[in-house]
UniProtKB/TrEMBL annotation:
Species whose genome carries this gene: Haloarchaeobius litoreus
Name of the protein in question: Pyridoxal phosphate-dependent decarboxylase family protein
One family name in Pfam for this protein: Pyridoxal_deC
Keyword Lyase applies: yes
Listed cofactors: pyridoxal 5'-phosphate
Lineage: superkingdom: Archaea
Keywords: Decarboxylase, Lyase, Pyridoxal phosphate
Record-annotated membrane-spanning stretches: none
Keyword rRNA processing: no
Amino acid sequence: MNRSNSPETGFIDPSGANAEAIRHLAEDVLDQLLGQLGAAEDRSPLPDESAVPAGTIPESPRSQTDLLGDLETIVAGSMNPAHPGYIGHMDTMPTTVSVLGDLVASAINNNMLSVEMSPVLSELEVQLTETIASEFGLGPDAGGVLASGGSLANLHALSVARNHAFDVQGGGLTGLAREPVLFTSEVAHTSLQKAAMVLGLGTDAVVAVETDADSRMKPSALNHAVEQAERDGHVPFCVVATAGTTTTGNIDPLPAVSEIADEHDLWLHVDAAYGGALVFSGAERGRLDGIEAADSVTFNPQKWCYVAKTCAMALFADTDVLQEKFRIGAPYMRGDDAIPNLGELGVQGTRRAEVLKLWLTFQHLGRDGLGQLIDESYRLTAAVRDHVADHDTLELASEPEMNLVCFRAAPDWCPPDERDALNGRLQRYLLSEQEIFVSLPTYRDARWLRVVLLNPFTDEATLDRLFDGVDVFLDADGP
């Protein structure tokens, strides 16, 4: 094939003819990137402004020097989760091996659609999802499929739940005499409404269940909602419990929720996108007691397991149900009785090999490394909670159950209707003056400061700087 219009390093020559030029390009990119990442503390957690390269397509190849210059600008203007003061979202610096795993996965460019197109990685994904399902106690027939994000994993799980309940994978919903509904807490992730919309149920089919003061679903309210839906002529089919709410990090009472699901013969899905990582902590895994009763689980290792984005999974207690209620065969692909074509079982067909960076992270950190990171997050969480308790001017949104603390400034001298604006100014001050980024979510119709203690390099000094900044700001902003 004529490649005269492409640069010498446009592709890696399989004969090795351009190996030296490729090596120089790779080394230059890697050296520049490592230089920027190794000095991440010198850049703000969020840039003040970002220069965006032109989105045009040049007529001819640009020089390596120009490309490196633009790459440097892109990194400099990007979110900087490696900074120890970046404690505002469920984003973290990834493990080194997951970054390298992404490089390898991109280089070999296997397609997780089928075993034929990803022979080693398909089998590895099957084995690893079975292993993780066993960590949750889902039983000997459990397994699952990786997905590019928790929203897709939730969509996958609810699709199987719907098809299992109504046998509509062929004929669709139009033949149903009554409308299906599912139940989840009023603070559950919005991906559930999106899934209901995509599945033809409509967002109104997601019934919001009242929560307690700590954002946990009330079992009595759930039972009442199910019974009310039945009286209204709807057909309940699924309950979604949350293990790690997005804003406050709370966990629904899984044993009580599973009892109600059993009583009403409902599919139980647990959205453990964030909190699922607790299974790797000997000290904290008991917080997930009851998850073993789930029919399906969403888990997102790209969060508390430090795997580079994206890496999520939908796990099922009975993979036979997944096969029977979701699989669409691809006649253009060779089948394998031992290992399924994962693209036939998942929402996505063509998919990159996220399993490689996940497997590498588990191998590199081991249970001891993962468990320690989770336990250290709890130690810092306790310190933040104590700081808030020691400040008369601060209040908690809920009692922390994970490594999230949601609090706000609520001094007596600030009228309640002005506290949202006060906390907005405080967030901006912490970023500009203390180089600490905390997010500012809306929770129960008010603005709160949210701290997420994920970064392995965040320490007590970071927290001292945070609360010293709070004190300075409130002293200056007060009466």
